[in-house]
Design brief:
CATH class of the largest domain in chain A: Alpha Beta
Largest sheet of chain A: 6 strands, parallel
CATH topology of the largest domain in chain A: Rossmann fold
Shape of chain A: elongated
Number of helices of chain A: 12
Order of helices and strands of chain A: HHHHEHEHEHEEHEHEHEHEEHEE
Distance between the termini of chain A: 66 Å
Radius of gyration of chain A: 27 Å
Largest interface: A-B, 65 and 65 residues
Number of domains of chain A: 3
Oligomer: homodimer
Helix content of chain A: 40-55%
Structural class of chain A: alpha/beta
DNA sequence: TTGTAGGCGTTATCAA
DNA sequence: TTGATAACGCCTACAA
C-alpha cells in the first residue's frame, strides 16, 4: 500500500518538478488535466506517480488568486441568531445541500463579535465570490453593498437595489384568514414583534387589508406589539377579547403562546385559536399540531443560490448585472388542531 | 457625503499607488498599519484618503497566499445530516460564536454530493487552517488525515491518532441509571442505532456494565437495535416486558418513542419510562419534559476550537504537534416527568 | 513535447 | 522616508 509521505509542509508543484528534473509549469499542466496539451505518456506517468507519492495537492488559494474566483459563497445575517435558529438553520442547511451541485463551499460570516464595518470589509476582500444576505433595513451594510462589485442576493427580506428571493407573505396571510373565516372566526389579532422586518410588515399589512376587505371592524382586527417572540405580555389583552383567533408573526411565537395557554388553563382553540407563520412545525413532538403557513424556505435558498451563481458568472465575464428583481414563491397552509 | 466609486473590478493597492505616483509597496505598508515604518504624515494622509475614495480593500486571498494562513477553519461531518440536525447545528452555532473571538471564519464542507476523496483534497488544499471533524470510524478520511499536515480536532466521536473533545458518555449513563434506580426502576432497555458511533458505543457499554454491577439479570437489561432514530419497531418487545425504563441513545429517538406511546395510549412513565441523551430538549413546546443527559456541546465546540487554534499556531511555527489527547467534559442530568 | 517569462495582489527585505 | 526586487503557488502564452 502506498502511503503519502507525512510532511509538516505542504508539497507544491515545484517540489514535484524538482524531483523529476522538469519545469514546474509542465507538472502543473499535466496534473490540471489540460487536454490540449499533450505530454509524452512517459512523462505523464512519472508526474502522476510522483505527485501521488509526495502527496501533492494543488493549492486552492494560489488558484483563487490566479483565477480571481474562490468558489466559495458567504452567508450573512445581522440578526442576533446563529445557525441554531430555525430560519437560519434551514436556509444554511438548504444552501449547504444546493452548493454541492455547483461545486461551491459555504462560509458563515459572523457579525457576532465584529462591528459591521469590519464585516463589510471581510465580505468584499475577495474570499467569497458572492453573498447570500438576510438583514433588516436597519443594517448599514446594504447601502454599501448596493454599490460594491460583490454579487449579492437577499433572502426573505428584500432590500432596495438588491435582487431578492422570498415567500409570498401576503398570500400566506390571506389564505390563513380565509381558513379562519371558514371555521367561523370573526375576531382576530396579529402579534407583531417590535423589530422591523419587511417580511413581517407584509404579513401585517395583508392582515389588516384583508380583514378590512371583509368588513371586519377595527376593534376585531387588532395588532399587538410584543417583545420579539414573547407572547405572554399580550395574553391579558387577548383574554379580555376572547374568543379570538391569534395570528402570530412566526411559529416560535405561536408555540410560546400555546405553552402559556396550556399553563394558564386557557382552552385552545375554544378561547384562543392560534396560528403561526413559517412552517417550522415539529411533528416529531407530542404537542398540538399548529396551524401555520408552510413557507418553502429550502426553495428560497435554492433559488437564491441559482440567482447568485448567475450574477457571479456575469461578473466573471465583466458584464453588467441585470436590474434587481424580486422573486416571490407561493406558500400553502398547514392545517392542524389549534384553530 | 463621500461615496466610494462603483466599480466592476476591485481596486488594488497598485491602483492607489498609481493615483498618487507612489510605489505599490509604500501604499501597502501605510495601509496595513506598519508601526515601525514611519512614512511622512503628508503621504500617509494622501494614501488613506485616496484608498477610501477609490474604495480600496486589501485582497485576503493574496494575503493568505503570502502568509500561508487563511484564518478560516472548516467543519466536516460524514453523517448524512446538514446543519439542521440538532447536534451539528449546535456544534456549528457554538463554533460560529467562538470563532468571533479568534477572528476566524467558518467554512462548511459538504460531503453531500462529492465523494470522500474529492472532499479530502479540498480539506487540504490550503483554504482552511484547520478542521473540526465529526465522523464515524467508517470514514476513509481519518486514515489519511492522521498523516496530513492539516491540524484536525474531532468532536463527540474520537478517532485513532487525532485529538478529540467529547462528553463523558459513560458518566452520563451511570448518572441516568442511578436516577432510574432511585425512582424504583429494575427493568431496563437500551435503544441503540444500527450505525456504529463511538459515543453511542460508550453509552451502551456503560449501560451494560453499570447494570451488571448492580446485579441486574441479563433479561432485565436488554439492548435493542433500531433503525437510526425510529423507535416504533422496538415497541412490541418493550410492551411485552413492561414496565420498563428505556434509555434511548439520543433525544430524538426518545421523542419519537414518546410520540408513539402517546398515539398507542401507552402510559408514560407508568408502563414505559423514557430517557434521552444529548440535552436537546425543547422546553418551548408544550410537550412532556424529557429526562435526559445534559451534554455541554457548546463547551465541546469551544474547547475543540481552542485546541485547534493551538495546533494551528504550532504548525505555523513549524513545530511538531503534541501527542493526540482525549478530553472528556462532565455531564449532568436534566430531570423531567418521563420516568 | 517542454521550458521560459510574466502576472494574480500582497508583504518582507533590502538598498537608496 | 521611499523604491526596487523577490517571493507565496499557480496558470497561461509564447517560444524553443
Amino acid at each position: 500500500m502506498k502511503t503519502p509521505i507525512s510532511t509538516l509542509v505542504p508539497v507544491t508543484a515545484r517540489d514535484v518538478a524538482r524531483e523529476l528534473n522538469l519545469s514546474q509549469p509542465t507538472v502543473s499542466r499535466i496534473l490540471s488535466g489540460d487536454v490540449r496539451h499533450r505530454a509524452s505518456e512517459e512523462t505523464r506517468k512519472r508526474v502522476w506517480e510522483t505527485a501521488e507519492r509526495l502527496g501533492y495537492r494543488p493549492n486552492a488559494v494560489a488558484r483563487s488568486l490566479r483565477h480571481g474566483r474562490t468558489n466559495v459563497i458567504g452567508i450573512h445575517t445581522n440578526h442576533k441568531y446563529d445557525v441554531r435558529n430555525d430560519f437560519l438553520g434551514t436556509i444554511v442547511g438548504a444552501l449547504q445541500c444546493a452548493c454541492g451541485a455547483y461545486h461551491l463551499d459555504l462560509m458563515l460570516h459572523n457579525s457576532l463579535g465584529s462591528p459591521a464595518e469590519t464585516l463589510f470589509d471581510k465580505l468584499r476582500d475577495g474570499r467569497i465570490d458572492g453573498l447570500i444576505l438576510h438583514v433588516g433595513t436597519d443594517d448599514p451594510l446594504f447601502e454599501i453593498l448596493g454599490t460594491s462589485p460583490l454579487p449579492v442576493v437577499t433572502v426573505a427580506d428584500s432590500l432596495p437595489n438588491l435582487p431578492a428571493v422570498m415567500c409570498d407573505d401576503a398570500s400566506g396571510m390571506e389564505q390563513l384568514l380565509e381558513l379562519l373565516w371558514q371555521r367561523g372566526h370573526r375576531n382576530f389579532a396579529f402579534l407583531a414583534p417590535h423589530i422591523q422586518l419587511p417580511s413581517v410588515e407584509r404579513r401585517k399589512k395583508a392582515f389588516e387589508s384583508e380583514l378590512k376587505r371583509r368588513k371586519v371592524p377595527a376593534h376585531a382586527r387588532r395588532v399587538i406589539s410584543i417583545n420579539y417572540e414573547q407572547a405572554s405580555s399580550a395574553l391579558e389583552e387577548l383574554q379580555q377579547n376572547s374568543p379570538v383567533a391569534v395570528c402570530c408573526w412566526n411559529d416560535r411565537t405561536a408555540y410560546n403562546l400555546l405553552r402559556e395557554c396550556l399553563q394558564r388553563g386557557i382552552r385552545v382553540p375554544r378561547e384562543i385559536a392560534v396560528t403561526g407563520f413559517d412552517g417550522f412545525r415539529d411533528d416529531q413532538l407530542p404537542a398540538r399540531e399548529l396551524v401555520t403557513v408552510n413557507c418553502p424556505w429550502e426553495n428560497v435558498a435554492e433559488k437564491a443560490l441559482e440567482k447568485l451563481v448567475e450574477l457571479i458568472d456575469l461578473r466573471q465575464k465583466k458584464q453588467m448585472p441585470p436590474a434587481p428583481e424580486e422573486i416571490r414563491l407561493p406558500v400553502t397552509i398547514l392545517d392542524g388542531d389549534t384553530i
